[in-house]
UniProtKB/TrEMBL annotation, chain A:
This is ABC transporter permease subunit. Its main location: membrane. Residues 60-272 form the ABC transmembrane type-1 domain. It comes from Aeromicrobium wangtongii. The lineage of its organism: Bacteria, Bacillati, Actinomycetota, Actinomycetes, Propionibacteriales. It comes from the Bacteria. Pfam families: BPD_transp_1 (PF00528).
Automatic annotation (TrEMBL), chain B:
It comes from Aeromicrobium wangtongii. It comes from the Bacteria. It holds the Pfam family SBP_bac_6. Residues 1-23 form the signal peptide. Transmembrane segments: none annotated. This is ABC transporter substrate-binding protein. Keywords: Signal. The keyword Signal applies.
Length: 284, 373
């Protein structure tokens, strides 16, 4: 075997991965970009122009707000939980149970999650019924669970555990010695957090928040199962453009909307990569 | 990142839809659609009469239907009756799909054995896709009123109904008109079957609200502001009603076609259905044969069955108004007992033309988000 072949051999193992990437990422992305600029088999900017439409802009705004809210709430609560876990014993029960629970819950999404919430907080949900019988209050109201507010709550449910998973390694990277060094030099707790831990953890924290944002921004199945009236967020507006039996011929608008989403996610993921680079310098 | 994968799947399905047959259709099956005689037949006579059609259909042995919910217009029983009568297996795909899904599926599966043989479509989707239909005249074609069929039989209305309000008398007070629903007893209880910018039934619900509030077939703005009021009162329940939500009491009031609402009375005795006085909005569904049907003879036999007295009375059994009702009444073949059970309709029924539907759809797509957020 020549030296060149031997050097290339390990790369062969990546071929299935790149094949997968091509089929499920590059080709669809290409098709979306091309499709967004086509109308009735001809090149056209009409769908791109339609992105400036009031309804589309409002939906984009809703999508961004929903993703940001659930990401920030998830990041703060998840971050606190992760810190609580890290202060415990590394092989303790708390840590083991929390991390494995988070592993499961972060992936507990889609239709199952939506129905779990409907069974809990829906019109005849367990908690709703209990609230009616025991406290005499109507938690269900006018069906807030099936709108944007409901989505924020349900998304937060899977954001918190995801935050724990992605943020825990950064907290683990903090050395006890750094704290000891700071203390032996006379630093107070506040000073330690203000000048050492804070700056070290901030990029990782912001990066994780961005990841949560992207995660919520692209979520579809949960929202689709929950929201049947209107299309408050972009993935649902895409569904509407593809399946509506009232407003026809919008399949290329769906491409344009998907392109809209790709642009937002690309921006977010670029920021994420930049932040990650900053953090990795320290936490090696 | 399961959810990211899901959005990728969504995008891929978007691609699949647009690339249609080119990307996803497999090679045509040799054993299906081979009977070219059946796929070009425009009546049973072309094949040598009804017996020959039955024989050809039995030889194919299968029929693909799509988007026919068993609880909708009695389709569950209709499918059983057809299977029993002709010993042909019916493959019912995606019972809860929308009309546009039927067309998408036909495009995506074109040339394969799994493509739908027949369609049951809402008005706008049907009229926008007539180039995909095979013209065919059933034996009873002449007894179908002119306005409910294409002269060549490219499409024929099969059954229709009126927009109605269904309500559970154990949960809410008696309803007579649409404005009753604005009262405080209906807080969080009024559901519309679907999103009116997406589903035909919900769309007609908005038209009904419009006509009851001084609008017309040309002007549905009052319908949208009615739902805005309903939402402001906290009465609009943004849940998609299904038989399950109705029977479990999650959707105590449902605005839907009278036949789907009527189907619930059999299972829930306290369920009542009214067509609001002076706001009768009618709607007929469109039946058509897929031009590229993999089982062309069975598809034609299915049409013959649906428009036979037996098929039409089966629709009636589900509370839907069969398109041949008047002719059958004259012939004495209509099941009068079932016909008498249909909700009463007062005032002139309103049926939207294609043009009016389009104008209304435009208005809705711009303004419905005010209601639904």
């Amino acid at each position: 075997m020549s030296r060149r072949v031997r050097r290339l051999a390990p790369a062969l193992g990546l071929v299935p991965f790149f094949g997968y990437l091509t089929i499920f990422l590059l080709i669809p992305t290409g098709a979306v970009v091309v499709g967004a600029f086509v109308e009735q088999d001809r090149a056209s900017l009409s769908n791109i122009r339609a992105l400036g439409d009031e309804v589309v802009l409002r939906t984009l705004w809703h999508s961004v707000v929903l993703s940001a809210e659930s990401a920030v709430v998830g990041a703060v609560l998840g971050g606190l939980l992760a810190y609580a876990v890290v202060t415990g014993r590394p092989d303790g029960l708390l840590r083991r149970s929390v991390t494995s629970a988070c592993g499961v819950l972060a992936q507990f999404g889609g239709v199952t999650l939506a129905f779990a919430f409907i069974a809990t907080l829906g019109f005849s949900g367990v908690v709703t019924e209990a609230g009616r019988d025991l406290l005499g209050i109507d938690l269900f109201g006018s069906g807030w669970l099936f709108g944007l507010k409901g989505l924020t709550l349900v998304y937060t449910y899977f954001q918190i555990p995801l935050m724990v998973i992605v943020f825990l390694p950064s907290l683990d990277g903090m050395r006890v010695q750094w704290r000891e060094a700071a203390e032996s030099l006379g630093a107070s707790t506040w000073q330690f957090w203000r000048y050492i831990a804070g700056p070290l953890l901030l990029p990782a924290f912001l990066g994780s928040t961005l990841l949560l944002f992207a995660n919520a921004f692209a979520a579809y199945a949960t929202a689709a199962a929950l929201v049947s009236q209107g299309s408050p967020i972009l993935p649902l507006l895409i569904r509407n453009a593809l399946t509506s039996e009232i407003v026809l011929g919008q399949s290329h608008l769906a491409f344009a909307l998907a392109l809209d989403m790709i642009v937002v996610v690309v921006i977010v993921m670029t920021l994420y990569a930049l932040l990650l680079r900053r953090t990795s310098r320290w936490l090696r | 990142m399961k959810r990211t994968v899901r959005s990728a799947a969504l995008i891929i399905s978007a691609v699949a839809v647009s690339l249609g047959a080119a990307a996803c259709g497999g090679p045509p099956d040799k054993d299906s659609g081979s009977d070219t005689k059946a796929s070009s037949a425009t009546s049973a006579k072309d094949l040598g009469g009804m017996d020959a059609l039955v024989k050809a259909a039995k030889k194919e042995g299968q029929l693909n239907v799509i988007a026919l919910p068993p609880t909708w217009a009695n389709y569950g029983k209709i499918i059983d009756a057809f299977e029993d009568k002709y010993d042909i297996k019916i493959n019912s795909a995606q019972p809860d799909a929308a009309s546009q899904d039927e067309i998408n599926a036909a495009n995506t599966l074109k040339g394969t054995k799994r493509a739908p043989d027949v369609f049951d479509l809402g008005q706008s989707v049907a009229l926008a896709n007539t180039s995909m239909f095979a013209p065919y005249k059933v034996a009873t074609f002449d007894s179908i009123p002119e306005e409910f069929k294409d002269p060549d039989g490219t499409w024929v209305n099969d059954y229709g109904g009126f927009m109605s309000i269904g309500f559970d008398t154990t949960k809410v007070p008696e309803v007579t008109g649409i404005d009753d629903l604005l009262g405080s007893e209906f807080k969080g209880k009024v559901a519309l079957n679907g999103d009116p910018t997406q589903a035909g039934a919900a769309f007609s619900g908005v038209v009904m609200a419009s006509i009851a509030n001084g609008g017309s077939a040309d002007d549905i703005a009052p319908g949208v502001s009615y739902f805005e009021k309903l939402k402001k009162a906290g009465n609009f329940l943004p849940v998609d009603p299904t038989p399950a939500t109705i029977e479990s009491g999650q959707t105590p009031v449902v605005i839907d076609w009278d036949y789907t609402n009527a189907a619930e009375t059999a299972k829930l005795p306290s369920w009542k259905v009214v067509v609001p006085e002076g706001a009768a909005v009618g709607g007929y569904y469109y039946q058509a044969i897929n031009k590229d049907a993999p089982h062309p003879a069975a598809a034609r036999l299915w049409q013959e069955f649906l428009y036979s007295d037996e098929g039409q009375n089966l629709y009636l059994g589900g509370g839907a108004r069969p398109v041949r009702a008047d002719a059958m009444k004259a012939d004495g073949t209509l099941d009068e007992a079932l016909y008498a059970k249909l909700p009463e309709v007062q005032g002139d029924p309103v049926l939207l033309t294609e043009e009016q539907t389009k104008t209304a759809a435009d208005y809705l797509s711009k303004n419905w988000s005010k209601v639904a957020g």
